[in-house]
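Q: I'm building a small set of examples for a reading group on sequence design. Run inverse folding on the following structure and report the sequence directly after it, with nothing in between.
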């Protein structure tokens, strides 16, 4: 079983998506497991001040100046250690740090990542996370696109989805993985003709022909 460990200040932002549809079924079947680690749970609270949970500080001003706040290293380091610090066979553990400057995520990367037993996703917020976490644990910088997001939660969901669907049996039929077969970006289903505002829209005739060779040629042409 592949276990995803998500280090995030906002686990609730992932749960609604990851507890639905195919990813939910993958968890129910035991193909994957998803665990969350909130850095606030690993912050050293000052007992004398009687701080509440929400008051536990996990961020601070950046050295060298600049706007915004930076997430402190130690709460994140402790969270990672709680996830995989005692794992045997650490060659099967992968730690991912989301960064716009990271390697572009792809189907090829998703395919190689499904071999791990544990994948840790570090979800940054604010102005980022103290870079010393990368000295405490070896990790790989990954980007899901040439843009900047508010946090790493969306990239984590993207990677969990893309990796999970490539695990044998998760989709029911492995041929459902579009990139492993000839598939068109356009798909159609019943009825053959629909009408909207007095205009009729039809399924392409080739898909109704029963000629598999022509259908495959049509799909190849649509992908270009």
């Amino acid at each position: 079983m592949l276990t995803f460990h998500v280090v995030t200040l906002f686990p609730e932002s992932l749960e609604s998506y990851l507890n639905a549809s195919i990813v939910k079924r993958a968890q129910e079947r035991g193909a994957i497991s998803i665990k969350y680690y909130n850095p606030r749970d690993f912050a050293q609270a000052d007992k004398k001040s009687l701080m509440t949970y929400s008051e536990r500080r996990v961020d601070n001003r950046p050295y060298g100046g600049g706007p915004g706040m930076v997430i402190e290293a130690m709460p994140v380091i402790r969270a990672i250690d709680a996830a995989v610090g005692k794992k045997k066979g650490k060659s099967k553990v992968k730690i991912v740090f989301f960064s716009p400057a990271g390697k572009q995520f792809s189907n090829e990367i998703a395919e190689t990542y499904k071999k791990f037993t544990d994948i840790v996703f570090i979800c940054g917020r604010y102005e980022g996370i103290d870079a010393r976490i990368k000295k405490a644990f070896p990790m790989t910088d990954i980007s899901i696109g040439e843009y900047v997001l508010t946090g790493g939660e969306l990239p984590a969901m993207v990677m969990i989805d893309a990796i999970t669907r490539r695990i044998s049996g998760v989709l029911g039929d492995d041929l459902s993985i579009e990139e492993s077969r000839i598939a068109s970006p356009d798909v159609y289903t019943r009825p053959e003709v629909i009408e909207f505002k007095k205009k009729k829209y039809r399924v392409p005739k080739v898909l109704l022909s029963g000629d598999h060779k022509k259908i495959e040629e049509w799909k190849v042409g649509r992908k270009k």
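Strands lie at 2-7, 32-37, 59-60, 70-71, 93-104, 118-122, 140-143, 193-196, 199-202.
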